Structure formats: C-alpha cells, structure tokens
Amino acid sequence: MLKPQERIINLRTVLFLTFILIIISGLLFKYLEWTVLRQTLKTYNASWAREFNDASAISKKGDDMLEVASELLIAIEAEKVDIENITRLHNKFDNLMNTAIYDGKLYIETLEKNQKDWIKISNLSNFLIGSNRNFVKDLVGTQNNYSILEIKSSNRSLISLYTFKAYFRALYDNRLISYYSEIMLPNPETNAQKYFYIIAPLEKYTKKDFEFEKQGDIRRIYPNSFDGINKLTNYSASYYLVMKDYIAGDMDSYSYKLSKLDQDAIELNYDSSILATEGKNIRTDISKEIIKEVLRNVELIKDFKQSKNAKGIFGDISHWQEDMVLCNLYSFKMSFVQSLTGELPRVRNIQDLITELSKTKPSNQYIDSKFDDDVITLSNNKSSLIFTCKDRINQTNYRFVIYK
Q: Whole-angstrom Cα distance, residue 169 to residue 69?
C-alpha cells in the first residue's frame, strides 16, 4: 500500500505527463494544421501556374491565327480567284486551328487536373478547426466554382474553334466553284469534264452521313453559325450534282436540280459576322461570374496573409501568388470590357488600368488597393495590349495578349 507521500509523487507524475502529452498533442495538431495550410498554398500556386502556362501559350499563338485568317478572307473575297494562294492560306489556317484545338483540349485537361487537386485539399480541410478551417473551405469553394465556370467557358471556346474551322472549310470549297467556273465557262462542253476534278472535294457534301468534326455540338451551341455553314455546304452539294448530271448528259435531271441550285444560291446571302457575336450574352454572363469568383478568391488570400495564421510556428505561410492571379484577372477583365463596349479603354500605366477596370462591375476596390503592381508590365501598341504577369516563385513570366 502506497504511503501518502508516494501518492502525491505519483499524482504529480501523472499530472506532469498529462501536461506534456497535452503540449505534444497541441504541437502535433499545430503541425498538422500547418501542413494542411502549406499544402493548400502549394496547390494554389501550382494550379494557377499550370493554368497560366497553358493560357499564355494559347495567347501567344493568337496573333498568327488572326493574321492568317485575315489574309485568307481577303484572298477568298478577291474578284480574281488565286486558288494556289487561297489553298496555301487555307492549309496554313487549318493547321493553326488544329494546333489551337489541341492546345484548348490540353488547357481543359489542366483545369480538370487542378479541380481534382482541390478535392484533395477539401478532404484535408476536415482536419482543421476554427478560422483556418473556414479559410480553406471558402478558398476551395471559390476554386471549385471558378473551375466549373472556366471549364464551361473553355468548352464553348473549343466548339467555337471547330465552328470556325468548319466555316472556313465550307468557304474554301465554295471558292473552288468560282475557280472551276472561270476555267469551264469559255468551253463548257469540253472543260466541264476535263476540270471536274477541281470540284471533286464537294462530293462529300452530297453524302447523308457527312458531318464536320463536332457538328452536333456546333449545331447545339452555335445554331445560327451552323445554319450559315449549312447554306454553304448545301450550295456546294447542289452545284456538284448539277455539274455531274451535265457531264453525264442527263439533262432532265440537270434541269430539275438546277432549280434547287438557284434556291441554294439565294440562301447564300448570310451575315458571317454572326460567327463572332453568337452566344455573346452567355459568354458575358459566364465572364461576370468568373470575375466574381476570382475577386473573392484573391480577397480570401489577402485577408489570410494579414492574419496571425499566416505566421505559422513551423514556418511562414504567406508566399501566395494571388497578385499574379490578379494580374491575369486584369487582363481577362480588360478583354471583357472590350467585348461589352467594342473597344479597349486607353491606359498609359497600371494605375490607369485599375481605375478604368474599377468602372466596370464586378469590381473590388479593396483588392485593387492591395495589388502589388510590381508583378505586372503593360505594353500598349497599335494592334494589341500585352500583359506580362511575373511568377516570382518560379521566376517565370506569363504573357497575355488582347488584340484591338
């Protein structure tokens, strides 16, 4: 049986060990908390860096595509058909479109990968309590909302590339008719058959199972644009069948189909500008929501960095890349303003930029006032406004171009 003095000693030992255990448990929890916050920071910086890397690469190639598309349209609309030049430009444009489509798919894959990484952070946040738990949960929420919106927007943009690719293909094939007619008409009895190979590519439009790539999505998302493409292909198909009957000497069928060709020719009166404007309201609504989510995202980071939680006892947790994110957002919002007004605001420096952008909702003056403008460089010229956003951690610059 223990003596009273021994009991006191044992009680002190138990209390001491309990105290030590509480301290160790507290330190272990703090370390776990710090680990989750550090992983959140790493995921934040890495996911945005991956996205910017892909988006910047796409932006750099936009200049070449616009230039070639402009040259191709001029060549197609020229009174004299220079088929060699048109073919050369169309092939170049088609290759650029294929590259853009490939890059667009990679960008969506990156967004989806980032989304999965944030699901992991969401699971880790369950180990947190208090303000840190709220911070990570809210941050994951904005990242998830942003990802859903950006993936939706990017999928629509991807289908718009398929739409332009199909349109220019149909337009090019339509121009083959003009070239064939120039050669054939001086002596149709001989030349119609001799040069029929020129319009041989039009045969595909006569097949019931012919479809452009992603035609179902084009029809669903851009129905008016698809209607214009369909009018071009209908005319090409009618012309091919008419000339095929003419060469075969089947004049009854030729005369019958000629009336449809005349009707299809009337239908060619189509406003091609709709390709650029269709779906604008939906794009505007999505863009507004994206801006809101990113502003909220950056606000969460700014607030966290000012809190005591950013000074972890196991190491600093304040090296977030939210200013680089904001730099990209300013570029995105400038493009958004351009889509609303039809022109870019005139800006000479970063302060001009922030002042102009604050005039368009959604905006956040609190965030603007805390922006570190050392991460952004503006270059304004006659044809474009170029944003260069600096990644200080990876020592990388991301370039985003808005064409005037």
A: 12
Q: Which residues contact 39 (CB under 8 A, 6 or more apart)?
A: 121, 124
pLDDT given at position 46 = 93
Tokens 């223990």 belong to residue: 2
- Pick from 219, 295, 230: which is nearest to 268 by CA? 230
pLDDT at 8: 55
Instruction: Say which residue the tokens 């209908």 belong to.
Output: 234
Asked if residue 151 lies in contact with residue 112, where contact means CB atoms within 8 angstroms, the answer is yes
Averages of pLDDT over runs of 10 residues in the chain (404 residues) are: 53 62 59 85 94 88 86 91 95 95 96 96 88 93 96 96 96 95 92 96 96 96 95 97 95 92 87 83 93 94 86 77 90 88 82 86 84 87 86 86 83
Helix/strand/coil (H/E/C) assignment for every residue in the chain: CCCHHHHHHHHHHHHHHHHHHHHHHHHHHHHHHHHHHHHHHHHHHHHHHHHHHHHHHHHHHHHHHHHHHHHHHHHHHCCCCCHHHHHHHHHHHHHHHHHHHHHHHHHHHHHHHHHHHHHHHHHHHHHCCHHHHHHHHHHHHHHHHHHHHHHHHHHHHHHHHHHHHHHHHHHHHHHHHHHHHHHHCCCHHHHHHHCHHHHHHHHHHHCCCCCCCCHHHHHHHCHHHHHHHHHHHHHHHHHHHHHHHHHHCCHHHHHHHHHHHHHHHHHCCCCCCHHHHCCHHHHHHHHHHHHHHHHHHHHHHHHHHHCHHHEECCEECCCCCHHHHHHHHHHHHHHHHHHHHCCCCCCCCHHHHHHHHCCCCCCCHHHHHCCCHHHEEEEECCCEEEEEEEECCCCEEEEEEEEC
Q: What are the Cα distances from residue 33, in Å, to 160, 320, 340?
A: 45, 17, 44
Beta bridge pairs of residue 397:
390
- Whole-model pTM: value is 0.88
pLDDT of amino acid 107: 96
d(Cα 147, Cα 333) in Å, to the nearest integer? Answer: 17
